[in-house]
Amino acid sequence: MVDGNSAKETGREGITRRRFTLGMLIASIAGAFGSLLALLKVLAPEKKGGGYATTIQPGDVLIYAKGGSAGSPITASSMNVGDAVLAYPTGKSSNPANLVQLIKLEEAAFKPPTDMSLTDKGFVAYSAICTHLGCTVSWMANRESPAASFTECFCHNSIFNPAEGAKVMGGPAPIPLAQIGVKVMQDGTLAFTSDFKGPIGPQV
Ligand code: FES
Protein backbone atom coordinates (compact mmCIF):
# COMPACT_ATOMS: atom_id res chain seq x y z
CA MET A 1 0.00 0.00 0.00
CA VAL A 2 1.31 3.43 -0.94
CA ASP A 3 0.75 6.28 1.54
CA GLY A 4 0.14 9.93 0.51
CA ASN A 5 3.75 11.08 1.11
CA SER A 6 5.22 8.22 -0.92
CA ALA A 7 2.80 8.96 -3.75
CA LYS A 8 3.86 12.64 -3.71
CA GLU A 9 7.55 11.67 -3.73
CA THR A 10 7.01 9.22 -6.57
CA GLY A 11 5.16 11.96 -8.44
CA ARG A 12 7.98 14.44 -7.82
CA GLU A 13 10.56 11.90 -8.99
CA GLY A 14 8.52 11.36 -12.15
CA ILE A 15 8.38 15.08 -12.83
CA THR A 16 12.12 15.47 -12.13
CA ARG A 17 12.93 12.55 -14.45
CA ARG A 18 10.72 14.01 -17.21
CA ARG A 19 12.37 17.45 -16.79
CA PHE A 20 15.79 15.83 -16.92
CA THR A 21 14.90 13.89 -20.08
CA LEU A 22 13.43 17.02 -21.67
CA GLY A 23 16.57 18.97 -20.73
CA MET A 24 18.78 16.32 -22.30
CA LEU A 25 16.64 16.35 -25.45
CA ILE A 26 16.88 20.15 -25.77
CA ALA A 27 20.64 20.03 -25.15
CA SER A 28 21.03 17.35 -27.87
CA ILE A 29 18.99 19.37 -30.38
CA ALA A 30 20.98 22.52 -29.55
CA GLY A 31 24.24 20.60 -29.96
CA ALA A 32 23.18 19.18 -33.33
CA PHE A 33 22.07 22.65 -34.48
CA GLY A 34 25.44 24.09 -33.42
CA SER A 35 27.28 21.36 -35.35
CA LEU A 36 25.16 22.05 -38.44
CA LEU A 37 25.96 25.78 -38.27
CA ALA A 38 29.68 25.00 -37.90
CA LEU A 39 29.50 22.68 -40.93
CA LEU A 40 27.73 25.31 -43.03
CA LYS A 41 30.39 27.86 -42.04
CA VAL A 42 33.12 25.54 -43.30
CA LEU A 43 31.32 24.71 -46.55
CA ALA A 44 30.20 28.21 -47.47
CA PRO A 45 32.51 31.23 -47.64
CA GLU A 46 31.66 34.05 -45.25
CA LYS A 47 29.18 36.50 -46.73
CA LYS A 48 28.99 40.15 -45.82
CA GLY A 49 26.83 42.82 -47.39
CA GLY A 50 25.86 40.60 -50.29
CA GLY A 51 29.47 39.90 -51.21
CA TYR A 52 32.09 37.44 -50.05
CA ALA A 53 34.32 38.90 -47.39
CA THR A 54 38.00 38.27 -47.93
CA THR A 55 40.68 39.23 -45.45
CA ILE A 56 43.63 39.30 -47.85
CA GLN A 57 45.99 42.24 -47.34
CA PRO A 58 48.87 43.38 -49.55
CA GLY A 59 52.03 41.78 -48.21
CA ASP A 60 50.36 38.52 -47.16
CA VAL A 61 52.55 35.59 -48.26
CA LEU A 62 50.95 32.85 -50.35
CA ILE A 63 50.99 29.35 -48.85
CA TYR A 64 49.95 26.02 -50.31
CA ALA A 65 46.27 25.35 -49.58
CA LYS A 66 46.36 21.59 -50.08
CA GLY A 67 48.61 18.53 -50.27
CA GLY A 68 51.68 17.54 -48.32
CA SER A 69 53.05 21.10 -48.43
CA ALA A 70 49.83 22.71 -47.14
CA GLY A 71 50.70 25.70 -44.98
CA SER A 72 54.20 26.15 -46.44
CA PRO A 73 55.12 29.28 -48.41
CA ILE A 74 55.04 28.85 -52.19
CA THR A 75 58.32 29.71 -53.89
CA ALA A 76 58.58 31.00 -57.45
CA SER A 77 61.23 28.40 -58.27
CA SER A 78 58.87 25.55 -57.36
CA MET A 79 56.53 26.36 -60.27
CA ASN A 80 57.12 25.85 -63.99
CA VAL A 81 55.30 27.51 -66.86
CA GLY A 82 51.89 25.85 -67.10
CA ASP A 83 51.68 24.99 -63.38
CA ALA A 84 48.94 26.14 -61.03
CA VAL A 85 48.32 25.66 -57.32
CA LEU A 86 45.60 26.58 -54.86
CA ALA A 87 46.83 29.07 -52.30
CA TYR A 88 45.78 30.97 -49.18
CA PRO A 89 47.33 34.02 -47.55
CA THR A 90 49.43 32.86 -44.63
CA GLY A 91 47.50 32.69 -41.36
CA LYS A 92 44.14 33.25 -43.10
CA SER A 93 43.24 29.82 -44.44
CA SER A 94 40.16 29.51 -42.24
CA ASN A 95 38.21 31.79 -44.58
CA PRO A 96 37.39 29.94 -47.84
CA ALA A 97 36.77 33.29 -49.57
CA ASN A 98 40.55 33.85 -49.43
CA LEU A 99 41.28 30.85 -51.67
CA VAL A 100 43.08 31.73 -54.92
CA GLN A 101 44.51 29.83 -57.86
CA LEU A 102 48.10 30.88 -58.51
CA ILE A 103 49.19 30.21 -62.10
CA LYS A 104 52.46 30.57 -63.96
CA LEU A 105 52.40 31.30 -67.71
CA GLU A 106 54.81 32.75 -70.25
CA GLU A 107 54.62 36.53 -69.86
CA ALA A 108 54.03 36.80 -73.62
CA ALA A 109 50.93 34.61 -73.31
CA PHE A 110 48.91 37.22 -71.44
CA LYS A 111 46.30 39.20 -73.33
CA PRO A 112 43.76 41.83 -72.29
CA PRO A 113 41.79 42.09 -70.12
CA THR A 114 44.48 40.58 -67.88
CA ASP A 115 45.69 43.38 -65.61
CA MET A 116 49.45 43.12 -66.15
CA SER A 117 50.14 45.42 -63.20
CA LEU A 118 48.84 42.60 -60.98
CA THR A 119 51.16 39.97 -62.48
CA ASP A 120 54.87 39.40 -61.91
CA LYS A 121 57.34 37.20 -63.83
CA GLY A 122 54.51 35.22 -65.40
CA PHE A 123 52.62 34.71 -62.13
CA VAL A 124 48.94 35.56 -62.07
CA ALA A 125 46.29 34.79 -59.44
CA TYR A 126 42.50 34.64 -59.51
CA SER A 127 39.81 33.81 -57.01
CA ALA A 128 39.38 30.03 -56.87
CA ILE A 129 35.66 30.34 -56.05
CA CYS A 130 33.52 29.78 -59.15
CA THR A 131 31.30 32.73 -60.01
CA HIS A 132 28.41 30.39 -60.82
CA LEU A 133 27.53 28.63 -57.57
CA GLY A 134 30.75 28.77 -55.62
CA CYS A 135 32.56 25.47 -56.21
CA THR A 136 36.35 25.44 -56.10
CA VAL A 137 37.92 25.58 -59.56
CA SER A 138 40.52 23.13 -60.92
CA TRP A 139 43.49 23.46 -63.25
CA MET A 140 43.55 21.72 -66.61
CA ALA A 141 47.22 21.70 -67.58
CA ASN A 142 48.29 21.34 -71.19
CA ARG A 143 51.92 20.21 -71.00
CA GLU A 144 52.60 20.51 -74.75
CA SER A 145 51.14 23.99 -74.96
CA PRO A 146 51.03 25.64 -71.50
CA ALA A 147 49.30 28.70 -72.91
CA ALA A 148 46.37 26.46 -73.83
CA SER A 149 45.91 25.39 -70.20
CA PHE A 150 42.72 26.58 -68.57
CA THR A 151 40.73 26.70 -65.36
CA GLU A 152 37.60 24.59 -65.08
CA CYS A 153 34.85 24.25 -62.51
CA PHE A 154 33.69 20.66 -62.58
CA CYS A 155 30.38 21.37 -60.83
CA HIS A 156 28.73 22.57 -64.06
CA ASN A 157 31.73 22.78 -66.41
CA SER A 158 32.41 26.47 -66.51
CA ILE A 159 35.72 27.23 -68.23
CA PHE A 160 37.92 30.29 -67.63
CA ASN A 161 40.93 31.51 -69.61
CA PRO A 162 43.68 32.60 -67.19
CA ALA A 163 45.72 34.23 -69.96
CA GLU A 164 42.82 36.58 -70.72
CA GLY A 165 41.76 37.84 -67.33
CA ALA A 166 40.01 34.54 -66.52
CA LYS A 167 37.25 35.40 -68.95
CA VAL A 168 34.46 32.84 -69.27
CA MET A 169 35.03 30.49 -72.22
CA GLY A 170 32.05 28.24 -71.58
CA GLY A 171 29.52 27.05 -69.05
CA PRO A 172 27.08 28.93 -66.82
CA ALA A 173 29.51 31.17 -64.90
CA PRO A 174 28.25 34.74 -65.49
CA ILE A 175 31.49 36.67 -64.96
CA PRO A 176 35.27 36.05 -64.89
CA LEU A 177 37.14 34.98 -61.77
CA ALA A 178 38.43 38.12 -60.08
CA GLN A 179 42.14 38.81 -60.47
CA ILE A 180 44.30 39.69 -57.48
CA GLY A 181 47.82 41.11 -57.47
CA VAL A 182 50.84 38.91 -56.74
CA LYS A 183 54.56 39.57 -56.70
CA VAL A 184 57.74 37.53 -56.33
CA MET A 185 59.59 38.68 -53.22
CA GLN A 186 63.36 38.90 -52.75
CA ASP A 187 63.45 35.64 -50.81
CA GLY A 188 61.65 33.87 -53.67
CA THR A 189 58.27 33.57 -51.96
CA LEU A 190 55.14 35.19 -53.41
CA ALA A 191 53.06 37.87 -51.75
CA PHE A 192 49.75 39.54 -52.55
CA THR A 193 49.91 43.14 -53.74
CA SER A 194 46.21 44.06 -53.79
CA ASP A 195 42.68 42.98 -52.96
CA PHE A 196 40.50 41.23 -55.59
CA LYS A 197 39.77 43.47 -58.59
CA GLY A 198 36.15 42.48 -58.92
CA PRO A 199 33.42 40.52 -57.21
CA ILE A 200 34.13 37.00 -56.03
CA GLY A 201 31.89 34.04 -55.34
CA PRO A 202 28.51 33.17 -56.88
CA GLN A 203 26.94 35.96 -58.93
CA VAL A 204 23.64 34.29 -59.78
S1 FES B 1 29.52 26.17 -59.58
FE1 FES B 1 31.06 26.34 -61.06
S2 FES B 1 30.04 25.91 -62.91
FE2 FES B 1 28.50 25.83 -61.44
Q: Which short descriptors sum up this protein?
A:
204 residues, alpha+beta, Rieske Iron-sulfur Protein, 6-stranded antiparallel β-sheet, 4-stranded antiparallel β-sheet, 12 strands, globular, binds FE2/S2 (inorganic) cluster
Lay out the secondary structure:
Layout (H helix, E strand, L loop, with lengths): L3 H40 L3 E2 L2 E2 L9 E3 L19 E6 L10 E5 L18 E5 L10 E3 L9 E4 L4 E4 L5 E4 L8 E6 L5 E7 L8
Antiparallel strand pairs: 1-2, 3-4, 4-5, 5-6, 6-11, 7-8, 8-9, 9-10, 11-12
Verbal overview:
This protein is 20% helix and 25% strand. A six-stranded antiparallel beta sheet has the order 3-4-5-6-11-12, with no helix packed on it. Strands 7-8-9-10 form a four-stranded antiparallel beta sheet, with no helix packed on it. Strands 1-2 form a two-stranded antiparallel ribbon. A hairpin with a 2-residue loop joins strand 1 and strand 2. With 204 residues, the protein is of the alpha+beta class. It is globular, with a radius of gyration of 25 Å. It folds into two domains: 43 residues; 146 residues, Rieske [2Fe-2S] iron-sulphur domain (Rieske Iron-sulfur Protein). It starts with a helix and ends in an 8-residue tail after the last strand. FE2/S2 (inorganic) cluster binds next to loops.
